[in-house]
Amino acid sequence: MIGTLYEKVFDAHVVREIAENQFQLAVDVHLVNEVSSPQAFEELLRRGLPVAHPERTFASADHSISTGGDVTLFDDAMCEAQVDMLGKNALDNRLTYFDPMQGLHGILHVVAPENGLTQPGMVIACGDSHTSTHGAFGAIAFGIGTSQVRDVLASQTLIVDKLRVRRIIVEGTLAPGVFAKDVALHVIHWLGAKGGLGFAYEFGGDAVSAMSMEERMTLCNMAVEGGARCGYVNPDAITLDYLRGRAFAPKGAEWDEAATRWLSWASSPDAMWDDEVIFRADDIAPIVTWGTSPDQSVPVGAPLPDPGVAGGDAEDLRDAMIFMGGEPGRPVVGTPIDLAFIGSCTNGRLSDLEAVANFLRRTGGCVKEGVRALIVPGSREVREAVIAQNLDQLFAERGFELRDAGCSLCCGMNADRLVGRQVCASSSNRNFRGRQGSPEGRTYLMSPVMVAAAAIEGKIIDARALENLA
């Protein structure tokens, strides 16, 4: 097949063209959470419509679920009602439900790949912005709104515009102490939070090819923060190695056929991309956001920009800087923190927590007095793997609080929230005002290891300095 992966997968799923450049696409996998689905199920019930393909629809409670250790305890009646309703809707409609009462739950963008649901060449939809995560496997994955959740439940199809494709190449090898999260923030820093509007991002190059599947998920997860509707990496041997043996992955002879088919979705050498941007891996340093948008960031140690020379963005930058308490020319390094959060669908996977554990072993650091440090696995499976490696003991000894699986402090829809003007070093994906539960709370995005370093020092620092890497 000739063309980009996006074109191949998109064209193979077209049911019909609705209007110029607007198409009805067949959806292979629909992921459903407790926040964006209740109204959709209610509307289906009102119209007397069944879920069109329950065997392709999978549910997990992630945004509102308690991470305190007892999944039946909620501090908010709305959260409890949402989780209860998801379980009822899943049962009534014969959906596969990653039931928290059975310890199967987690963030959908962690649980689905763990189970082998996410496969190359698929179209995946979910009522959550960070559905772009699944592009790491060479799938086209769309975050959708509640009305579209309703439509997919009823028809297993989705109406979307066909996007242009921007190839983003990262050449070379990342330096020690630089992670996939830094690559994602670097791309957003240079292309902007709206730079990807109208595009799908195809990530490639030496640095991306060398990434593990979990690192690729981090990269594609953040594509939406750069304005792209979706992001993806072409499938390769690393993709196959990750999927082999997963619960929903093909087995036996079906695996051989699937593997050949999956690799054929990759963009062909003579594909035509609508745009191309090339970055050098050795230009990428650990990145920290300083403002209220993921593109308001600097390499750690660099001074904050002067809004006065920012042209048309001057007012937004000035407002963000005042809100965060920053000053032009002053580095973000040294900013005191109140909380450290390691988790989310961006950085709550096992390899993220292993990287933090290894950093703690190398540096011998403990959480600074006065700082609360949360480690929240992206799924119960991740939490159990952490415990199996005795990392829970290490985290506890160093002052970190290992919690149960869920979105936790990433979205502030559960009991984990900032209070007042608290400052959080966070491995999550958004630093919007109010994102972590307090309208006045301040969020600095960075990699999990950078968050751990901030927890140890009680302030934002360059994690590499603790290992003499900087």
From TrEMBL:
Molecular function via GO: 3-isopropylmalate dehydratase activity
Enzyme Commission code(s) on record: 4.2.1.33
Pfam families noted in UniProt: Aconitase
Annotated Aconitase/3-isopropylmalate dehydratase large subunit alpha/beta/alpha domain residues: 7-458
CC cofactor: [4Fe-4S] cluster
Pathway: Amino-acid biosynthesis; L-leucine biosynthesis; L-leucine from 3-methyl-2-oxobutanoate: step 2/4
Keyword terms: 4Fe-4S, Amino-acid biosynthesis, Branched-chain amino acid biosynthesis, Iron, Iron-sulfur, Leucine biosynthesis, Lyase, Metal-binding
Keyword Transferase set for record: no
UniProt cross-references to InterPro entries, sorted A to Z: Acnase/IPM_dHydase_lsu_aba_1/3, Acoase/IPM_deHydtase_lsu_aba, Aconitase_4Fe-4S_BS, Aconitase_4Fe-4S_dom, IPM_dehydratase_rel_enz, IPMI_cat
Keyword Cell inner membrane (UniProt): no
Ranges in coiled-coil conformation: none
Enzyme class: lyase
Catalyzed chemical reaction(s): (2R,3S)-3-isopropylmalate = (2S)-2-isopropylmalate
Physiological role: Catalyzes the isomerization between 2-isopropylmalate and 3-isopropylmalate, via the formation of 2-isopropylmaleate.
Assembly information from the UniProt record: Heterodimer of LeuC and LeuD.
Protein name, per record: 3-isopropylmalate dehydratase
Protein species of origin: Roseovarius pelagicus
